[in-house]
Amino acid sequence: MSINVRGYAAHSSTSPLGLFGFVRRDPRPDDVVIDILYCGVCHSDIHHARNDWGGATYPLVPGHEIVGRVTQVGTNVSRFKAGDLVGVGCLVDSCQRCRACGRGLEQYCESGKTLTYDDVDPHDGMPTYGGYSERIVVTEKFVLKMPDGLDAAAAAPLLCAGITSWSPLRHWNVGPGSSVAVVGLGGLGHMALKLAKALGAEVTLFTRSPGKEADARRLGADHIVLSTEEAQMAGVANRFDLIIDTVPYVHDINPYVPTLATGGTLVLVGYLGPLEPMLNSAPLVMNRKAVAGSLIGGIAETQEMLDFCGQHSIVCDVEVIRIQDINEAFERMLRSDVKYRFVIELASLKGWV
After folding, report:
1. Answer CATH for 161-293 from 1.20.120.80, 3.40.50.410, 3.40.50.720, 3.30.1330.30
2. Is residue 132 classed exposed, middle or buried when 0-12, 13-18 and 19+ CB atoms within 10 A define those classes?
3. Closest to 217 measured CA to CA, from 229, 227, 207, 232
4. What pTM was estimated for this model as a whole?
């Protein structure tokens, strides 16, 4: 039978999120039913709710950094059982047939991946609703095993902020001897520092804000460079094998290119859109440098990241909130007033009318 669920939804691009009742699909033989314990609040939740990227469909229930406990499994499910602590990230399905899916890169599915929210289930045409809700139904392949020993609330943002940082670190083979820089110290940036350091890299934070040094060093930075100081930027010329740029809005990336080593790459993980001012290709061509992009990770890579975090006791720095405070949290995020991720405790929905 269908599952009645309560959550918080945006009903338009300008309305605050509010209580919303809806129906989850009848569980299929390969489905896992999950009671949601915690859901991280990602910057992209705001973009979707406010239709910053266009194409949003309302009502819209955000949330794709989900940790919960299994309550029911379908007859074909073999990897999970009731009581298991599990995670769900940004994807709940993909075609499983294209070249990208065959390589474990479901995030780049060529036939159209299915997002955890603000999307349409290709099997039944139902809208997908995210983790700002009591429970969720997800096909087994897109459910992740949460490691033992990690705080469940602090682990929730690993399902987006963690994997978004981890995927480029792994793709560009970061390890001992690598020199990595991170641009921006927010939800993504603080995870990039932690993960790069744990992989054995020498880690630098680029920031425009003096006063972040102590926090950056606590999170794993060996060096801090003020990107507004010309002398400091000149002092790190030709140094970095990889720069992870986590800034979520349009900004000038040209000043960072000279700090790349020959053959180095600057990878954008926070901003989607045209670059302004225009990217100067001359230093790329003359020194075989690159500017690239990266989007979350596939399911196998996400599980690898979670297991690594379990082995190294890595979680996000979080502030746990009630779901009733989500609109205030959105406003605080826009002011960068959080260190470094809000996480909703879904128990706050119980008894709420």
Report:
1. 3.40.50.720
2. buried
3. 207
4. 0.96
CB-based contact 346:322 (threshold 8 Å)? no
The whole-angstrom separation of Cα 47 and Cα 344 is 18
Which architecture does CATH list for 3-160+316-349?
Alpha-Beta Complex (3.90)
Tokens of 168: 């480029």
Nearest by Cα to 100 from 91, 256, 341, 226: 91
- Digit-coded pLDDT (tens) for 157-183: 999 999 999 999 999 999 999 999 999
For residues 69 and 85, the answer to whether their CB atoms sit within 8 Å is yes
Report the Cα–Cα distance between both ends of the chain, in Å, rounded.
24
Map out the domains of the chain as residue ranges.
3-160+316-349, 161-293
Give the residues of the chain that fall short of pLDDT 70: 1, 351-353
What's the number of CA atoms in the CB half-sphere (13 Å) around residue 213?
6
Alpha-carbon span 223 to 216, nearest angstrom: 8
Residue 12 CB contacts under 8 Å (≥ 6 apart), including other chains: 58
d(C-alpha 83, C-alpha 52), whole Å? 38
Angle of helix 187-198 relative to helix 299-312, nearest 10 degrees, comes to: 70
- Judged on CB neighbours under 10 Å (0-12, 13-18, 19+), 164 is buried
Pairing of strands 240-245, 290-293: unpaired
Q: Is 27 exposed, middle or buried (0-12, 13-18, 19+ CB in 10 A)?
A: buried
